[in-house]
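Re: the multi-chain job from yesterday

Posting the exact lines I submitted so nobody has to dig through the queue logs.
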Amino acid sequence: MKINILAFGIAKDIFNGSAITVDLANDATVYNLKYVLEQQYPRLKKLATYMMAVNNEYALDGDTIHERDEIAIIPPVSGG
Amino acid sequence: MKINILAFGIAKDIFNGSAITVDLANDATVYNLKYVLEQQYPRLKKLATYMMAVNNEYALDGDTIHERDEIAIIPPVSGG
Amino acid sequence: MNTQIKLSVSTLSVQDCVDWVMAPETGGIDVFVGTVRNATKGKPVVRLEFEAYDKMAINEMEKIARQAFDKWPVQKILIHHRTGVLQIGEIPVIIAVSAAHRDAAFNACRYIIDTLKQTVPIWKKEIFEDGEVWVAAHP
Amino acid sequence: MNTQIKLSVSTLSVQDCVDWVMAPETGGIDVFVGTVRNATKGKPVVRLEFEAYDKMAINEMEKIARQAFDKWPVQKILIHHRTGVLQIGEIPVIIAVSAAHRDAAFNACRYIIDTLKQTVPIWKKEIFEDGEVWVAAHP
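And the result, structure tokens for all chains:
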């Protein structure tokens, strides 16, 4: 399945854009997605940390990703 | 010596005025003054507590009172 | 000057207080705004009256500000307190503290209002429909 | 409604925030005002740029407000956060909390800003004379 990933903050610089599309196996987990992303964008591994959000909620590594989910990469936040 | 005592808050009600004059021995202490005041105004003993101020500073019972000191009675404060 | 302390008979302005403590090196400001509640222990309050021993009150507030500067790395401290008659919703006190980092601003602001309520010679009378009472006077 | 949460591209007003949280039963309001400092670790800052994942940021701020209502007896909670370009001295965030008693207002306000900085998807870029950096991105 093709999954659209929204990017913010430094992730936008790393992806060189505010969204990218990746190809994932059906029933892929957040963990699988992070692995794919880190292969394509090794600079992600240099971040202090980062999270994935699924449908506007922080996701766990074991969470399954579905085709129409809204996925975003959340680098370390720094609001306030 | 004659000493003028400023009164605030409920002390003004007890003294029935914003200042009173009392007669004190020279070298009287704050403790002596409180005793005299409580004799003349027994309602003072019903307060939660009260302090005396000498020249705009809280005074201790053992502090000596001088003739030109500015003396005030400070019933429990409730600002803020 | 890094401290502004004032007793005032007219309306206090939160905006003015924040503007005064803000400096180019400020990262965070904590502001405490006291307001006149419409009831005390369930009993409706009509209005409040505040009275101060002005000179000593200013003295004591200056002491508290100095203590706060000694305890925390804060930049500016402002304490404004009303006197006179206050209606429900009016503001008896504003404390504003600026700092490079918020921890100091929060701690100092809290310390100042807590200590002010214990030591500064200001008195509040609550006026009810059927009487009035000097707050905290009796046990 | 007892909660007001907003992302805004225009100037935040402390006065508006205090006015909104104040209620007749309010006894105390604590307000935290973030400001753009002119330097970070001694290095002059030219301006900041804030970016938010809007929908999720609102979600997370609503969660924090609900948690604060669960933890402390507070009356109203307001969280306003800026996005876009901010100059030195501008206000990125205002948090205002009203309560009958100040203890709850202070604790909730502190909790909200601390948690917001940890969980709300908003990002700050510091622009220096010679470069720029996404704050906290790297270890």
